[in-house]
Amino acid sequence: MKPLPPLDPALHQPARLQIAAVLSNVSSAEFAKLREIADVSDSVLSKHLSAMAEAGYVTLKKAAMDGRQRTWISFTRKGRKAFKAHMAALQALVASAEQAATAE
Amino acid sequence: MKPLPPLDPALHQPARLQIAAVLSNVSSAEFAKLREIADVSDSVLSKHLSAMAEAGYVTLKKAAMDGRQRTWISFTRKGRKAFKAHMAALQALVASAEQAATAE
DNA sequence: GACGTTACTTTCCAATTCGGAAAGTTAAAT
DNA sequence: ATTTAACTTTCCGAATTGGAAAGTAACGTC
């Protein structure tokens, strides 16, 4: 039984996984939508997004929507790739666990 | 896009996932084996195992092996169930991410 | 039967991380 | 010029995580 592929610390945290899962499905998502799904406060979401942006995984774009200022978040190519790798690592984990016959 | 099933905090941490993945495949594993796979120090492994034991997820049994004292770790039924649920949550995450066409 | 060794366990401590509240910022609406 | 909406940053406190080192328990040895 060998060590599994490494999990990305910038994505592994639950709120970040949620955010990433959403972003993987869309070209961009609204701040408010992510906050709702990740179920965190403004400040916490903002901090997670900053961290992910710092890692080069997402970009934030402010755009006027109905006059109001909104922030749209998107994966960068790097972010998409990192998330894909992270998912693969999780898949590997699931797979390794799936041969769960009771052997010794 | 709805919130995904919750991830179990007692299992989500990387070292714990590794430990759980191993345990899911065997009836019991040696302390030393887990330490090697999780790639952590004695003290850290011991603490993770204590935490998982406290959660009712694993049991530790000391047994003499070749004269020497060894500790064998096993999932409880509850632990197995919790890990299964956790894996299902990860699967759901993977699945939700998998429709990753670029839609909006 | 004192002593060393092995195999953990617990304590100590520092570094991160995480979260919310509250204060700060900025651009648009009035 | 003010207000307001939509974040962002600061300011905490609490919890996690990790290693080193000290502690403990069970043998094995002499």
Describe the structure.
2 copies of one chain form a homodimer. With 104 residues, chain A is of the alpha+beta class. In chain A, 57% of the residues lie in helices and 17% in strands. In chain A, β2 and β3 (68-75) form a beta hairpin. Chain A starts with 8 loop residues before the first helix and ends in a 6-residue tail after the last helix. Chains A and B meet through α2 and α5 of A and α2 and α5 of B. The first copy, chain A, binds a DNA duplex (30 and 30 nucleotides) through α4 and β3.
Oligomer designation: homodimer
The most extensive interface between chains reads:
A-B, 34 and 34 residues
Q: First CA to last CA of chain A: what distance? A: 12 Å
Q: How is the largest sheet of chain A built, in terms of strand order?
A: 1-3-2
Structural class of chain A: alpha+beta
**Low-confidence regions of chain A:** 100-104
How many beta strands in the DSSP annotation of chain A? 3
Mean pLDDT value of chain A: 87
Major sheet of chain A:
3 strands, antiparallel
The outline of chain A comes out as elongated
- Provide a count of the helices of chain A: 5
**H-E string of chain A:** HHEHHEEH
Q: Percent of residues of chain A in beta strands?
A: 15-25%
Helix content of chain A: 55-70%
Rg over alpha carbons of chain A? 16 Å
Short structural description:
Two copies of one chain form a homodimer. The first copy, chain A, contains five helices and three strands.
